[in-house]
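Tip: read the tokens left to right.
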């Protein structure tokens, strides 16, 4: 299905809260110990390992004896503050048993969405790897609110994987892979061992989170897969409920492998493609879709609708007439001006705005095509 894990250069592993924390007893120390043994084995084989670890809030609420009730925002943040210390200490201790050092990296949404902060975060993690330390990454839940958070660590892990140029992302979860339907709801659901690419049909198979400790679900895992595979990073979804879950992958235990794109985006465009929440959306006509597929810029003449309150330089999604995202890029106009010139030929823009302006709404150098002509034919079929 895929190469042995030890044959990869750099791997990002994401651990869900339910795997790491028991509601009654707190941290699952035996499970963490077994995972760290796997990480150590891969490190000795020359693989650079990064860990994206959920569990701070879940562990903190157990330590603070907050029970299973819904928490207020400030209570969740307090639980995260307590849980982060305990979680970082546990990772340090267990990795240290194998002679490995670790470094905690707490990030917020802005650390990957804003270019300067993105580069700073990447530099920190790259330096840790050079120093032979394992970065242990988590969302900074002590300060993140619903408006400025990832909402799940699957997409965070994908952003870290693309940021770091990893060739494999492993999502350890409470399900052993992708099925044609949520198996808990459909006993006849069929397991899918390999996904060539994430099509609308594959996305339709996603369900919701299986545990109240989890904020994600298969849908967020597929979102993560789109981010990762577009940048040339393969992805594996497998169950982490067993001990030594990474070794289990090499033993051939059930897992779904998502192939990386044959034409991955690189460098600067990786950051554009991975932006989680575009500031706006531009709906274009069929002619513009065809032009984008040929590598051309998006001109105002092809724009039929403008949504969002964005500023020049923000990331916007470009949608087909059917509402399917076909590209993502940095817009050359503020939203108000974009509305005024949508549908106009380039020669007409200056008269409307009162000054000379850029011919392209989104220039091809600042754009990543996130769909393909073949995908669009599939939608129409």
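Filled-in amino acids:
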């Amino acid at each position: 299905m895929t190469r042995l894990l030890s044959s990869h250069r750099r791997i990002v592993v994401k651990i869900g809260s339910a795997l790491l924390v028991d509601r009654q007893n707190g941290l699952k120390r035996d499970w963490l110990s077994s995972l760290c043994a796997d990480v150590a084995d891969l490190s000795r084989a020359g693989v650079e390992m990064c860990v994206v670890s959920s569990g701070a809030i879940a562990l903190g609420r157990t330590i603070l004896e907050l029970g299973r009730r819904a928490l207020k925002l400030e209570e969740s943040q307090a639980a995260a503050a307590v849980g982060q210390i305990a979680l970082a200490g546990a990772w340090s201790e267990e990795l240290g048993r194998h002679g490995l050092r670790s470094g905690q990296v707490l990030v917020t949404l802005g650390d990957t969405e804003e270019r300067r902060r993105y580069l700073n975060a990447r530099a920190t993690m790259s330096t840790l790897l050079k120093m032979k330390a394992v970065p242990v990454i988590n969302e900074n839940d002590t300060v993140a609110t619903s408006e400025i958070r990832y909402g799940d660590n699957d997409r965070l892990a994908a952003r870290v994987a693309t940021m770091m140029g990893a060739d494999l992302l492993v999502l350890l979860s409470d399900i052993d892979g992708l099925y044609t339907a949520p198996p808990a709801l459909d006993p006849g659901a069929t397991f899918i061992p390999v996904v060539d690419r994430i099509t609308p049909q594959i996305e339709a198979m996603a369900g919701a989170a299986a545990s109240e400790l989890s904020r994600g679900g298969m849908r967020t895992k597929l979102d993560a897969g789109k981010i990762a595979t577009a940048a040339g990073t393969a992805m594996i979804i497998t169950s982490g409920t067993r001990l030594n879950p990474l070794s289990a992958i090499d033993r051939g235990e059930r897992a779904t492998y998502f192939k990386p794109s044959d034409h991955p985006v690189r460098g600067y465009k990786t950051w554009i493609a991975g932006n989680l929440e575009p500031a706006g959306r531009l709906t274009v006509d069929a002619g513009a879709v065809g032009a984008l597929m040929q590598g051309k810029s998006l001109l105002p003449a092809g724009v039929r609708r403008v949504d969002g309150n964005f500023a020049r330089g923000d990331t916007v999604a470009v949608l087909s007439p059917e509402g399917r995202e076909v590209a993502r890029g940095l817009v050359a106009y503020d939203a108000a001006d974009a509305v005024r010139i949508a549908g106009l030929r380039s020669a007409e823009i200056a008269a409307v705005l009162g000054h000379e302006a850029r011919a392209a709404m989104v220039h091809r150098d600042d754009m990543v095509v996130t769909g393909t002509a073949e995908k669009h034919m599939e939608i129409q079929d």
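The two ends are 30 Å apart (CA to CA). Residues 208-215, 373-381 have pLDDT under 50 and may be disordered.
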